[in-house]
Design brief:
Distance between the termini: 56 Å
CATH superfamily: Aldolase class I
Number of domains: 1
Number of helices: 14
Mean pLDDT: 93
Number of strands: 9
Helix content: 25-40%
Oligomer: single chain
Strand content: 5-15%
Largest sheet: 9 strands, parallel
Structural class: alpha/beta
CATH architecture: Alpha-Beta Barrel
CATH class: Alpha Beta
């Protein structure tokens, strides 16, 4: 006969789930109880999260048509799972993309209907590599972030694409310089766990991955009124409790400033040639659990994303765990951070989303609620320098004009 005695922690989980289902905010103690979710209750957890998503977002799932611009792959950090970073020897004569290369990619993407220019780059390489500093000095730039600001301006002024910069940690001055030419910006928190910085940990040699400095960058974005994307990376050695703690830290900053436009739940994938090459990938059920908990903690109004190219076989299941966004999808450029994982075709993304009852809609790099002229947030978060450009791209709901019909194979 099956025992009816509750295991330790199950009662706390049931109470937390009940609170979330009734629409009540989960405070820290209740939120941490979700870490004790019994495996047999995973479907209940996901169902509660999906119901909450429906309340806030309905049955629309979005994506951002983008080009990926890896401005430099040089980086001062060494993370145990990264194949994006290069050193000068492996980069050869391509330490940074030139202005001509940046503009060529952006203009090609514009012709294909893209609206986002995603700038991704290594963290402050000039602090580690004299070659990087020399390259910058020869072109009149003191830092990589100063060069990035100029490239964002170049794209914004010469194409209809809206820049979204992911440059790593930033000071107030650096973010202020980037803000006029970025519709939004981003920085993955990844984890709030200091354990990951211990000897042998994935962030041992990555000073910019310290939770304190990452959270300070997200805080600065709130103070400056920058619509901001962040998220966590799961499967790199953190516990479920530590994931909850990271999500609570993000929630606290969003409660203060209202600027976190999107939270990404990204799953670790092992890559050959890295220290973590033999580590297991984050599993489907683990990702489902994390997505559902994120929805319950962050509420019905948060935009929650899972990258579909990192879960090519089963990505639709995360719709039933509470997400409402697929992130950036490019018809032109690869995912340089995960080059082994191609983007799904937009037509396929639409078909597989529709099979679960969702309408796929393209969005700008800044989400509709930060765009609509009927919302006070638009004037607070959207740089004045980009208002006309955003108005030309957005429909009256804040999505991309023309909708899905803009993209080949989706009519």
């Amino acid at each position: 006969m099956r025992s009816t005695i509750l295991r330790p922690g199950v009662a706390g989980f049931d109470k937390a789930l009940d609170t979330a289902q009734r629409g009540g905010p989960l405070e820290s103690a209740e939120a941490l109880a979700l870490a004790d979710a019994p495996e047999e209750r995973l479907d209940d957890l996901c169902a509660a999260a999906a119901t909450l998503r429906d309340q806030g977002k309905g049955r629309v799932v979005t994506f951002s048509p983008k080009v990926f611009i890896p401005l430099t792959r040089l980086c001062r950090d060494f993370c145990g799972y990264c194949t994006f970073r290069q050193d000068p020897a492996s980069a050869g004569d391509q330490l940074y993309m030139t202005q001509e290369q940046v503009l060529a990619v952006a203009q090609h993407g514009e012709k294909l209907g893209c609206t986002e220019a995603l700038f991704t780059l290594g963290e402050r390489p000039e602090l580690r590599y004299p070659e990087a500093q020399q390259w910058l000095n020869q072109r009149g730039y003191r830092t990589t972030l100063a060069y990035l600001a100029e490239m964002c301006r170049l794209v914004a002024e010469n194409t209809r694409l809206l820049p979204h910069a992911n440059p790593g940690t930033m000071s107030r001055h650096e973010m202020e310089a980037l803000r006029p030419w970025n519709a939004s910006m981003g920085l993955m928190l990844e984890s709030a766990s200091l354990r990951l910085h211990q000897t042998g940990g994935p962030h041992e040699l990555a000073p910019s991955k310290r939770p304190r400095v990452r959270l300070r960058t997200i805080e600065l974005a709130g103070e400056l009124g920058v619509a901001f994307t962040t998220g966590i990376l799961i499967g790199i050695g953190e516990t479920r409790r530590e994931r909850v703690e990271a999500l609570l830290a993000i929630r606290e900053l969003h409660r203060r400033f209202g600027h976190v436009q999107e939270v990404i739940i990204q799953n670790f994938r092992a890559k050959p040639g890295t220290p973590m090459a033999q580590s297991p990938d984050a599993g489907t059920d683990d990702l489902r659990w994390t997505v559902a908990v994120a929805r319950l903690l962050l509420g019905p109004g948060m935009n929650l994303q899972v990258p579909p190219n990192l879960s090519a076989q089963d990505y639709p299941v995360y719709l039933n765990a509470g997400i409402n966004d697929w992130g950036g999808i490019s018809p032109l450029t690869i995912d340089y951070v995960n080059p082994e994982a191609p983007w799904p075709a937009i037509a396929e993304l639409r078909r597989r989303s529709a099979a679960l009852g969702f309408e796929l809609r393209p969005r700008l790099p800044v989400y509709p609620e930060y765009v609509s002229e009927h919302r006070a947030a638009a004037s607070r978060f959207l740089p004045q320098t980009l208002h006309a450009q955003v108005s030309a791209l957005a429909d009256n709901q804040g999505y991309v004009k023309g909708g899905i019909a803009r993209y080949a194979g989706c009519q």
